[in-house]
Amino acid sequence: MTYVIAEPCVDVRDQACVAVCPVDCIHFDEGVDRTLYIDPNECIDCGACEPECPVAAIFTEEALPAEWVRYTEANALWYTDKDAARAMINELKPA
After folding, report:
1. C-alpha span between 90 and 16 (Å, rounded)
2. Which range marks the domain in which residue 71 is found?
3. For residue 59, what are the β-bridge partners?
4. Alpha-carbon gap, residue 17 to 56, rounded angstroms
5. 3-state DSSP assignment of residue 3
6. Scanning 18, 67, 86, 92, which has its CA 20 to 30 A from the CA of 33?
7. How far, rounded to the nearest angstrom, does the alpha carbon of residue 34 sit from its chain's CA centroid?
8. Which of 87, 76, 73, 80 is nearest to 33 (CA)?
């Protein structure tokens, strides 16, 4: 995965990034998820989403601050086990 949505998105869920994604790889379940997730298998690494995020929550994997590195796993996990990804977000940033 090249792009990761990290902690600044938690409980914000601004969807400006979704609107500009040319492959629709950013998802969340409204009313359930606390953050948005980038699908690592669909993302084409175009970078269109990064400058559109008003809370600066989207990073390349290489630029992701060390304290948010587990968000890489959470983003990928959501696409195979949503409940586990949600639990991880709750662990990383308790409500």
Report:
1. 23
2. 3-92
3. 4
4. 11
5. strand
6. 67
7. 10
8. 87
Say what the pLDDT of residue 1 is. Answer: 56
CA gap 21, 5 in Å, rounded:
13
- Name the domain count of the chain: 1
How far CA 57 is from CA of 49, 76, in Å, comes to 10, 16
Q: What is the CATH number of the domain that holds 19?
A: 3.30.70.20
Alpha-carbon distance of 61 to 81, in angstroms, equals 21
User: What size, in residues, is the chain?
Assistant: 95
Q: How confident is the model at residue 95 (pLDDT cuts 50, 70, 90)?
A: confident
How confident is the model over 13-70, as pLDDT tens digits? 999 999 999 999 999 999 999 999 999 999 999 999 999 999 999 999 999 999 999 9
Query: Which pLDDT score is estimated for 87?
Result: 98
β-bridge mates for residue 3, sequence order: 60
